[in-house]
Amino acid sequence: MLRARLLERAAAWARRRQGEDVPPLVLQARRLYILPTRAGVAFSVLLFVMLVAGLNYTNSLALLLTFTLVGFMLVGMYECQRTLQGLELTQAWALDSHAGSTGLIELRLANGRSASRRALSVRCRDTPGTRFDIAAGATGSVQLFYRATRRGRVSIDRLELATTAPFGLFRAWTWLHLPLTAIVYPRPEGQRALPRSGAHASVQTAPIAGSDEEEWSSLRAFNQGDNPHRIAWKVYARGGALMVGQYAGSGGDEHLLSFSGLEDLGLEARLSQLAAWALECAERGAACGLQLPACQLPLGRGAAHQANLQRALALYGEAAL
After folding, report:
1. What is the model's pLDDT at position 199?
2. How far apart, in Å, are the Cα atoms of 273 and each of 170, 219, 260?
3. pLDDT for res 15
4. Lowest mean pLDDT across 12-26, 111-125, 172-186
5. Residue 266, Cβ neighbours under 10 Å: how many?
6. Which among 248, 234, 246 is positioned nearest to 301, based on CA atoms?
7. Is-contact 96 185, C-beta < 8 A?
8. Distance CA 312, CA 303 (A)
9. b vs e for 144-170, b when ≥16 Cβ sit within 10 Å of the residue's Cβ?
10. If you average pLDDT over every residue of the chain, what do you get?
11. For 118, phi and psi rounded to 5 degrees?
12. Residue 158 pLDDT > 80, yes or no?
């Protein structure tokens, strides 16, 4: 508990000192911190014992070895800090995720010097770090994770970039205070089956893709994300509106999702059930829309439409979607 408080105070002090970071960002020496690792502390104790023994026995060879190892340690400390100094962060972004899972953060780093940078690691708080190297003169991407605990808009206020190169005797690190924001979707769970009728589901049976307009059982207006192969091009060529054909089968179901029929559940449980239904519609290739108080999305298909729908569920109840 005491250690956590000290770390939080140190991080708050560093943020006040550094301010907010905006890529592209080059790491300068003034924002780097360095301390010995456990191995470094043990090595220091060993050197102190060797120094005392050499002085006590006036052993020149022991003193020579001790001072040589001290120089080795000092070089390691200098090289450890130099591994981070001058490293450039060019881009950073966070991807959306579902509550109860881990979201993905991606950083793009550039190494402008003529030597490799090794034993680097980056992590978000309370998550395992990702270790990586960057070759001389290279640009690379590194992925790390953040915990998505609850739905809504999540700000990732601090990342830690560190290294123990070259000998593991010291650890140099810096905090990155980036303006990263991600959307955490509701946890997709619920025991209720996807409704086939009712106020919260509008269903049209039929569509296994056919090959000809004459096989279509009906036409409907085109929605973003619809399969281009199902567009009624002959109708469009005759001057008609852009329409999509529906076939007899199951893939052309259309579901308008709402809170109807879920009144006995709490708000979070309702949103989780709707998120699960939306994913099920995507797996079936069915079109789905959303009709909630102060939030409506038309029927549609595709990854972009699914992301908009999940985003609307995630931000439901917030002042601005």
Report:
1. 39
2. 50, 30, 12
3. 81
4. 12-26
5. 9
6. 246
7. yes
8. 14
9. bbbbbeebbebebbbbbbbbbbbbbbb
10. 85
11. -120, 165
12. yes
Q: What is the helix (H) or strand (E) element at residue 289, kind and residue range?
A: strand 287-292
Structure tokens at 93: 């972004």
What's the pLDDT tens digit per position in 86-130?
999 999 999 999 999 999 999 999 999 999 999 999 999 888 899
Helical segments of 57-153, H only:
60-84
* pLDDT reading at 22 higher than 70: yes
Return d(Cα 144, Cα 124) in angstroms, integer. Answer: 7
Residue in the block written with tokens 């994913």: 279
What's the whole-number mean pLDDT along residues 39-67? Answer: 96
As a whole number of angstroms, the distance between CA 230 and CA 60 comes to 88
Q: Alpha-carbon distance 166 to 176, whole Å?
A: 22
Element holding 307 (H helix, E strand)? helix 303-314
**Tokens 């008609």 correspond to what residue?**
240
How far from 78 is each of 72, 97, 115, 301, CA to CA, in Å? Answer: 10, 40, 15, 56
Q: Provide the pLDDT confidence category of residue 245 given band limits of 50, 70 and 90.
A: low
Q: Are 271 and 100 in contact (CB under 8 A)?
A: no
Give the DSSP H or E segment for 10.
helix 2-18
- Contact residues for 143 (Cβ-Cβ < 8 A; gap 6+): 104, 105, 106, 107, 130
Separation of alpha carbons 71 and 37, rounded Å: 17
Predicted local distance difference test score (pLDDT) of residue 221:
73
Nearest to 160 by CA among 213, 123, 212: 123
Determine phi and psi for 187, rounding to 5 degrees: -65, 120
